[in-house]
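@channel anyone free to eyeball this complex?
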Amino acid sequence: MRGFIDSHAHLADPAFDADRAAVIARARDAGAAGIVCIGESLAAAERAQAIAAAHPGFVWHTAGVHPHDAAGFDPVRDVAAIRGELARGAVAVGECGLDYHYDHSPRDRQRAAFAAQLALAHEHRVPVVVHTRDAEDDTIAMVREAGGQGVRGVLHCYTGSHDLARAALDVGWHVSFSGIVTFRKWTDDDLLRLVPDDRLLAESDAPYLAPVPNRGKRNEPAWVTHTVARLAAARGIDAAALALAVADNARRLFNLVHAG
Ligand SMILES: [Zn+2]
Ligand SMILES: [Zn+2]
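replying in thread with the prediction:
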């Protein structure tokens, strides 16, 4: 499978400290055309920036504050830090969003941090990478409002309702699926078919959520091939063609420029 882009990998995670270069090399060998390296905190974003700088035109980085950490979000300090990362080439704000499943931060703080990052994406005309779990109504409201103002983004590692997916698609957003769709318990193939060809992304979410047949192991971008194959099977299309489509969609959403 040639040419896919992993739209969401936490390559800055310490899980890759021992062999990060080998992980990136294996992604290239597996046919990846690129990896979007997520900065889910300002510290992670700084490390992600260094990884992107070491792999220009193949790895790109993002910068944001995850909803789990929203309680510590400082609108002055953190917005300035994300601005700094955008100046250093970050291709998106995020990941940010709402997670009412774990509720690691109070919900009002989650909404405030998410709103601030949506506003920043709007101001800088960059896309936003959104994490959402068990927060359907608030996510729909906030994505609709931002989308109405022209903000574009992606619902990453999506496992939510058809209604939320449709609300995001209606305002021009993308939907990204992870290895979860390869798990035996996954039953919602209608959701995989609901996303149009030009709005579909695939991601590893590495080091988490390794797809079958590697479930339970540390995940890595090379294994997105299994997820792309599963998406293609659900949609009844050729996996090689879908790999190129998800790459084109990632390039368009994140304005990715390849090396050379
Ligand atoms: Zn996430
Ligand atoms: Zn993530």
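from a first look: The mean pLDDT is 97.
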